[in-house]
Design brief:
The protein is 75% helix and 3% strand. By secondary structure, the protein is mainly α. It has one domain: Ferritin, CATH 1.20.1260.10.
């Protein structure tokens, strides 16, 4: 049932299209929306890999949490885009990125590889959202302010798991 739910969520998020903003929307807003969407999708897909490949229960649990949280965030982002009547298209290259990630992942030590990547990805997402606090759209501001604590929690959890597993992260 979880696999079907995840598939349906992914199908819904992949169908999101991001290209032009409504008139009056600046490029920073559209750029943020694209990056936030693709960042969520990357977290969902890599969380799915963790559920399948991780040996440590904490790493699998973290992957599951990433799927749930980032699926919900992309749903909220999708609703925001529809409410604001943005017409946005974005080429989904996340599948290729995941393939590259898998090719780089060692046969043994997936947990270490995944968690170190997630610390890096989570830092980048937090920075993306913090930088977007300058966007002048109240609805996007609310989304960002509601999402930042979740992303910071992910970073904190990933860092704690890295420390627990003695993984060196930068």
């Amino acid at each position: 049932m979880i696999k079907l739910r995840t598939f349906l969520i992914l199908l819904g998020t992949v169908s999101l299209s991001i290209v032009y903003g409504q008139s009056g929307t600046n490029d920073n807003t559209i750029d943020f929306i694209k990056k936030a969407y693709l960042g969520n999708l990357m977290q969902i897909k890599s969380g799915t890999l963790a559920m399948k490949n991780a040996k440590d229960g904490g790493v699998r649990s973290f992957g599951s949490q990433m799927i749930a949280d980032h699926s919900q965030l992309n749903g909220q982002l999708h609703s925001l885009i529809q409410t604001k009547n943005y017409n946005v298209r974005s080429k989904d290259t996340t599948g290729k990125s995941i393939d590259k990630l898998l090719k780089k992942a060692p046969a043994t030590g997936f947990d270490n590889f995944y968690i170190s990547k997630m610390v890096t990805e989570d830092k980048e997402l937090v920075a993306l959202y913090q930088n977007a606090l300058t966007i002048n759209d109240p609805a996007i501001q609310t989304f960002i302010k509601n999402t930042l604590p979740i992303l910071k929690g992910h970073l904190s959890s990933a860092t704690a798991i890295a420390n627990q597993l003695n993984i060196q992260v930068h």
